[in-house]
Amino acid sequence: MKHSTTPQTRRGRGPARRIGRSLAFVLPVVLVLSGTLAVTRVNWSGDSSSPVLTAADASVSKASSRAAALAPHEVLRGRLLTELQEEDPGVALTHLQEAVDDRPALARHCASIARSLGRAAVRVYGPTRAQSYSRPVCDTSYASGVLAAHG
Questions:
Q1: What was the pLDDT predicted at 45?
Q2: pTM given for the model
């Protein structure tokens, strides 16, 4: 049997092994420290005058928690429906177009919001006056909302 004259290299002595060992040591330390810091930030005394939030803060209003749970397009819809009632559909449609221009992710919800505005406008202003505010926002979806609410 003939032996090789080239020395065999040991497996696992590369940079990947060193990085792995470093992570195996550092990661648990980071997790323990972050958990400890999180626990120290909780107000365990029950005194709500502290600026630090308690674990179960009961002072959060129901309205703000519901608003936080809503998707951005639902928040926009609610705001625009309020504007429609307080001002007029033209203002709401202008703000809808501006919101879609500012946040393109809202474009896929634009037609449904515009139809909602059209239906609400018929309830508030009647079909003839509501139709007078029609403009080509979101492919005339506002007008189709007016028509759906009137018909």
A1: 61
A2: 0.54
